[in-house]
Amino acid sequence: MSVPATPPTSATSSAAAQARAVQSRDTTPQDLTAATLARIEAARDLNAVLSVNPHAAAQAAQVQARLDAGEPLPLAGVPVIVKDNINVTGTATTSGSRILRGYVSPYDATAAARLVQAGAVIVAKANMDEFAMGSSTENSAYGPTLNPHDPARVPGGSSGGSAVAVAAGLSAVSLGSDTGGSVRQPAAFTGVYGLKPTYGRVSRSGLIAYASSLDQIGPFARSAEDLALVMNVIAGHDPLDATSLHAPPAFTAGTPDDLRGLRVGVITESLAGNTPGVEATLNATLDALRGAGATVAEVSLPELRYAIAAYYLIAMPEASSNLARFDGMVYGQRAPGSDVTEAMTLTREQGFGPEVQRRILIGTYALSSGYYDAYYSKAMKVRRLIADRFTQAFGQFDVLVTPTSPFPAFRRGEKTSDPLAMYAADVDTVAVNLAGLPALSVPAGFETVDGTPLPVGIQFIAPALHDERLVQVAGALEGIGLAQPQVAPGY
Ligand code: GLN
C-alpha cells in the first residue's frame, strides 16, 4: 500500500513550492505531472481516482511553453486533482454515477478553466459519492475510497477522493464540492484543510448540480498558503453563473498576530455528543486560541437543532429537479426500450444507485401538492431563521467554532444500512450551507481508536464574504503549531 519516497518537488511538497520550483526551472511541469501519475498508479488501492486526464501531458507541455514565453503563472505546473462532478474538457466526467459512464465532457467548469489559465495541470478526476449524495464515498458507483489513515475506514464524503488525493500526497491541492459538508467532513477525516467558500464566491458553472442553492466548489490543501493560492485563482465573479458574486479574492495565510483580539464564539449546540478525542481536540484548540490572545465565549444558536431536517428537505427536492435531465437522451448511458418512456424509465432505474433514487423519490414527494407547505416551504422558513441567527451571532464574534464532525472516520459499512445515521453525520456542517456562509475544517488533532491515530477536524465559520479571514486563521494556527496538515503516515 505504501508509495515510494519521492523527490522534494513531487506531489508531497506544497503547491506553492511546486510553482516556485517550476518558475525557477528547478523542475518542469512535465516532470511534476509524470510524478503525480506515478503516485496515482502506486496508490490505486485507495480508489481515490476514477480516471486520469488523457491530455495531462499535453497540458504540462503547454504550461512550459507559456512559461518560456514569459507568461506569469501563479500555479505554474502544479498538478491538481478535481472531483468528478467538475467538468474538464476531454475527461470522463461521471459524478460517481453509472448513468454517466462513458460521458466525456466537451467543456471546462469555470473553476477548472481558471486553474488551467493559472498554469495548473488537471491530472485526474477524484472518486465521490454518486452525484455528491453521501458522507462516506461509499455511494460511488465505482467502489468506495479508502482512508489512508486506516483503510478499513471511510475517508468521509462526498468529496472523499479529493480529500484522499491530498492526504495521501497524490497532489498538493485538489477541488471538491460542498453542499452540506462534502469538503469539510472528508478534510476532517483525512487530516487536511477543506474550505467551503461563501455561496457565490466560486463559480458553479460546469459543476454537475446536486442542490443548486447549497452547492459550492472548494479546495483541499495541506497548508494555508496553498489554500490562499488556489482561492486567489478560482474565486471571483463569473458571468456564466447567475449567483456568482462580485468579490475579488484577496487571500493570504495569516500569522499568530492575527489571533490577538479575535472574538471566537463556540457554538453551544455542537458541544454535546462528541467522542472524547473530538472533545479534547476542541478544548485544546480553544486553549491555544486563548493563549494566542483571542477571546473565547459560548454562543447558543437554538435553531441549529432543525438544521439536518431542513437541509435534507431542501437538498432532496432540488436534487429531484436537477437530476431530471439524466434520462439517457442527451448524456451518458441509455437503456434500450420499446418506446421513449420505457427507455427513460429503464435508464434511470439502472443508471441511478439506491441512495440517488431514494432522494429523487423523497424530493419529489416533498414538492408535491399537499405536501409542499408541510415540508419544503417549512424547511425554507427554518433556513431563514438559521441564517438570521448566524447574522446575530456575528454581531458579537469574528468567527464561530464547532467540531467538523462529532466523531473521527467511521468504519466502512458502519452506516450504509441506516440512511438516517448517515445523514446525522452532517450535524455540524449543513447549517453553514443553509446560511450560505464560508467555513474551513482545520486538521487540529488526532483521536486514537483501536490503536490507530485518526485525524480530528475543527470547523471555523466566518460571516458571508469573509472567507479570507478563515485562511488567515489557518495560517495563524500553523504558526502556533496547532494546525497539523500532513500526508498520512506511509504515504
Ligand atoms: N452528506 C450530505 C448529503 O449527502 C452532504 C453532501 C455534500 O455536501 N455534497 O447531502
Automatic annotation (TrEMBL):
Spell out the catalytic residues. K83 (charge relay system), S158 (charge relay system), S182 (acyl-ester intermediate)
Domain of life here? Bacteria
Biased composition, class Low complexity, residue ranges: 1-25
Q: Which reaction does it catalyse?
A: L-glutamyl-tRNA(Gln) + L-glutamine + ATP + H2O = L-glutaminyl-tRNA(Gln) + L-glutamate + ADP + phosphate + H(+)
Entry EC number(s): 6.3.5.7
* Metal-binding is among the record's keywords: no
| Record-annotated Amidase domain positions | 31-470
Q: Where is this region: Disordered?
A: 1-30
What Gene Ontology cellular-component terms does the record carry? Answer: glutamyl-tRNA(Gln) amidotransferase complex
Kindly indicate whether the keyword Protein biosynthesis belongs to this entry.
Answer: yes
Q: Name one GO biological process term.
A: translation
Reported function: Allows the formation of correctly charged Gln-tRNA(Gln) through the transamidation of misacylated Glu-tRNA(Gln) in organisms which lack glutaminyl-tRNA synthetase. The reaction takes place in the presence of glutamine and ATP through an activated gamma-phospho-Glu-tRNA(Gln).
Q: How does it assemble?
A: Heterotrimer of A, B and C subunits.
Query: Belongs to which family?
Result: Belongs to the amidase family. GatA subfamily.
Q: Which HAMAP family match?
A: GatA (MF_00120)
Protein name in UniProt: Glutamyl-tRNA(Gln) amidotransferase subunit A
